[in-house]
Small ribosomal subunit protein mS33
Amino acid sequence: MKVAPSSSAVSSLKALQAKVFGTSYNPTNARTGAKYLRARLQGPSMLSYYPPTVNFRAIEKLAPGLGRLQDVREIQREKDVERKKMLGKGPPKKGKLAGGEEKIHKRLCTDESDFLNDE
């Protein structure tokens, strides 16, 4: 009749086995996330799945002066912006206030002499 080994002998054997083979010993079966840490990173393969997108601006930068290339979306966007300007719904002019005055950006300290005068 065969007798099963004691639980302490089995646990010590598993600890020794983990030490010999370089694996982690987890007697309580707690979740460690080792499966996910061992897995290959997905970012590089996902980025290389689709080819880089080609747009008209990139082509125009590479070869300026090719007059035949026209970006239909860019032309439509420019028309929409012009139409909104005519209706008075475009962006305000930079640096101008409602009264026509220039915006003045004040600094907290104009120069280093302000720090020296406080003494």
In short: Residues 11-88 form one domain. The longest helix spans residues 7-21. DSSP finds six helices and no strands in the chain. The radius of gyration is 35 Å.
